[in-house]
Amino acid sequence: MATETPPDSPSLDVDAAVKSRYSAASAAVEAQLCCPIDYDPRYLAAIPDAVLERDYGCGDPSRYVREGETVLDLGSGGGKICYIASQIVGATGRVIGVDMTDDMLALARQHQGTVAERIGWDNVTFHKGRIQDLRVDVDQLDQRLAEHPVRSANDLADLEAWKRRFEGEPMVADSSVDVVVSNCVLNLVDPADRSALFAEIFRVLRKGGRAAISDIVADEPVPEHMLRDPELWSGCISGAMTETGFLAAFEAAGFHGIELVSYQDEPWQTLEGIEFRSVTVQAYKGKQGACWDCHQAVIYRGPYKSVLDDDGHVYPRGQRVAVCEKTWRLLKGGPYADSFCFVEPLSPVPLEEAEPFPCAPPPAADGARAAGLVGAAGPLLRTAAETKGEGYSLSSDPCAPTSGCC
After folding, report:
1. What pLDDT, in 10s, does the model give residues 9-60?
2. Is residue 312, in this structure, part of any structural domain at all?
């Protein structure tokens, strides 16, 4: 799979440039940092104006949050998306905000009690942390450094030993989150840390969980001289990934069902002929695992002649394609369900009795035929006879009183 090669780290301190810009923006509104976005007004009434006015997003990933979920907001800033998500998930849900800018965290925490009083529950927690390393709680790290300053090699060794405890007790635990959201923040991360960032998003999500990320992307690679400009970096320009590179980063991290759910028609900004626009991507975790044959099949409805999934399976329109139990579950959920018909075998095969399924393309033709499947060069097809089983000879009367047909 071809992925975008990230540029070398720019010759500036990206973290310092971003912190400086957003610290100032927490005190005074900076219109250049945001795109016009229509949020659901039902959720804005409970949020103080001080938070609403200092929101610097480019999309609304909260639209993809559901009741009762645990939500993680990367780069939560003044807390606007967290407070919207808090209302959507309800009292049974949970929202975690992570940001590195002290002033933005202070703004979010300052109004937490007000929002909780207005909506009737308090289910939001804010942490200081780097979104490319969700294991380390930087508030705890700052406290540790204040109590045990690093003045020698021994002090440094003690600090590294202390940090290793986060491997077993991470700030955000493995597989603990239903949905990760972010609003115009990933582009602020140094390119050298991008792989770690997407790996962390994948790590904290539960199997079946998803990411809903709004960000600024570019239609062409950003040139070197723009990468060295701190104003363009902190302004969500220089760090923008290309449109194709952004999607490829999700794929490289192991996600499936990657979908552009929002794409801004007109660019937010155009600079030196490069168009920068807001997109929102939704992607799912869960395609990893063993493949077992429970004699299931799916039929792609169309309208395309055929489609290809993230595991390399091809689905020709209208044909019964044999799938493993894992792929069956994936296609019945997420963004796929409306595109397929699902054919169960007449006699269900319990998972504990299933045989291994030859899922990896290209298919093993001999093994496929032996299992009752047909097709050697293309997808494995499941015959109707195999679905019904040997000796199936039922006849039905279409005009019988119980048929409901006449």
Report:
1. 455 555 554 545 444 444 444 455 456 688 899 999 999 999 998 787 889 9
2. yes
Q: Which two tokens stand for residue 18?
A: 């971003």
Both tokens assigned to 158: 């003690």
Which tokens belong to 175?
Answer: 């597989």
Cross-strand bridge partners of residue 180: 72, 211
CATH number at residue 298: 3.40.5.100
- 263's enclosing H/E stretch is strand 256-263
Contacts with 36 (C-beta within 8 Å, 6 or more apart), sequence order: none
CA atoms of 266 and 127, how far apart (whole Å): 35
Task: Give the phi and the psi of residue 156 in degrees, each rounded to 5.
Answer: -65, -40
Tell me the CATH number at 69: 3.40.50.150
In a domain, 159, yes or no: no
Number of domains forming the structure of the chain = 2
Distance CA 65, CA 148 (A): 41
Contacts of 160 (CB under 8 A, 6+ apart): none
